[in-house]
Write a structure and sequence with these properties.
405 residues, five-stranded mixed sheet, 12 strands
């Protein structure tokens, strides 16, 4: 039974070799082991989001709740696809609090779509109203802060500007390049309306622009009106906000969002690197016994320790008690040795609360090496590291249990 629970691949029982009085009991153990293996396989598949996995046999009562969950998730996946295709009548009524959140999301999506359609209709009406009013256009554009240039779509000739482009540019020498960008956009795009952003590098630094093209007839010409605005300041503000979003508010290390973004970038760029999945031990105990303030101090302690993994690694907090390290220039064995060394430091020094109460800190980890030939997606790689971490945690939990206090 221990092998069935902890080492299922080697769990064997030769029923025929048992004394006759014990064979019926042995057959029951074998049947139980088979049901447990099926249940474990289904649970593993569901944890990975694999809904195409084979289901346990009908007589497997151990897996009945998981099979119900599997059916509910498949139906939910179908409903989600329906919503993605525009069917906002879908509602979920069988998953408790999640149902309320899902249904509220669908209602909001419908409301936003309706509002967007109304806004599009309003903009389209405004565009039609202004299309044949070139004189009015000149009066209005002369008072706008944006730079507007009307260009002949066939020849590239400038037909109108509301003012000199020098008022828009920080570096006046960028004017020829700015016009080249506009012409290149006109030549490769046949859309009736297109918006975008681009940047130009000058002596004063990088300057960002937004541009929107509007088709119109200008005194007999088939033309485009390009509306440009300097968005350098807003881009800088966005960069600052992204930096805040990319940081975990408690520890200051990178957030899950940034870590997954970097992981996908490294996979796409075929980097050689290691991914380390780290899980803090005993955090729930610390929170329950000493309070979440002490739990946060414990998280900060582990975070500061993991920062010393290497100078150029990326450390991010996935959430709660989970961290991830991405590092290049190191193989899996060296990464494991480094993590084991950090774990030893944590284990060797008993931690104390502010009131002086001691508790033991520890961590578990799993390391996966990713090479240039990798074809697995980020989620599968992270799942492999998570499985290795779980195996490590289980192994050391067994060791602690077998070690006298």
């Amino acid at each position: 039974m221990r092998d069935v629970l902890y080492y299922p691949n080697r769990a064997k029982l030769d029923v025929a070799s048992l004394p006759e009085d014990f064979r019926e009991l042995g057959e029951g153990f074998v049947f139980f082991a088979e049901m447990l293996q099926e249940t474990r396989a289904l649970a593993t598949a569901l944890s990975r989001g694999d809904l195409s996995c084979p289901l346990p046999k009908p007589d497997n009562e151990l897996a009945s709740n998981l099979k119900s969950l599997h059916a509910a998730l498949k139906h939910l996946a179908w409903q989600t696809r329906q919503v993605a295709n525009g069917d906002y009548k879908q509602r979920v009524r069988f998953m408790g609090d999640f149902s309320e959140s899902f249904n509220q999301m669908v209602v909001q999506l419908k409301e936003r779509q309706d509002a967007l359609l109304d806004e599009i209709a309003t903009i389209e009406k405004q565009r039609r109203d202004l299309e044949y009013s070139n004189d009015l256009f000149e009066i209005i554009t002369s008072r706008l802060s944006e730079w507007i240039v009307v260009i002949d779509r066939n020849t590239g000739e400038r037909l109108f500007t509301n003012r000199t482009v020098g008022n828009l540019l920080v570096d006046a020498s960028l004017e020829p390049r700015l016009y080249e960008v506009l012409l290149s956009q006109i030549r490769k795009e046949n859309d009736l309306q297109k918006s975008g952003e681009f940047s130009l590098a000058g002596e004063e630094g990088l300057q960002w622009f937004s541009v929107t093209f509007y088709p119109l007839h200008w005194h007999g010409y088939d033309a485009l009106a390009a509306v440009l605005a300097d968005i350098t300041a807003s881009r800088a503000e966005i960069d600052k906000l992204e930096e805040v979003a990319y940081r975990d508010t408690l520890t200051g290390v990178y957030s899950r969002h940034y870590g997954m973004k970097l992981l996908n970038e490294w996979i796409d760029q075929h980097f050689d690197f290691v991914i380390c999945f780290i899980d803090m031990d005993q955090l729930k105990y610390v929170n329950d016994v000493f309070g979440h303030v002490e739990g946060d101090r414990y998280i900060l302690k582990v975070s500061d320790l993991l920062k010393t993994f290497s100078e150029d690694c990326c450390l991010c907090r996935l959430g709660g008690d989970e961290f991830m390290i991405l590092a290049t220039g190191i193989d899996w064995k060296a990464a494991e040795d480094r993590l084991e060394s950090l774990r030893s430091v944590l284990v060797a020094e008993p931690l104390t609360t502010e009131s002086g109460a001691p508790f033991k800190g520890s961590l578990s980890y799993g390391v996966v090496e990713v090479t240039k030939g990798n074809a697995l997606p980020s989620g599968e790689i992270l799942s492999q590291a998570d499985e290795k971490m779980y195996a490590y945690k289980k192994q050391h939990k067994m060791e602690r249990r077998d070690t006298p206090a």
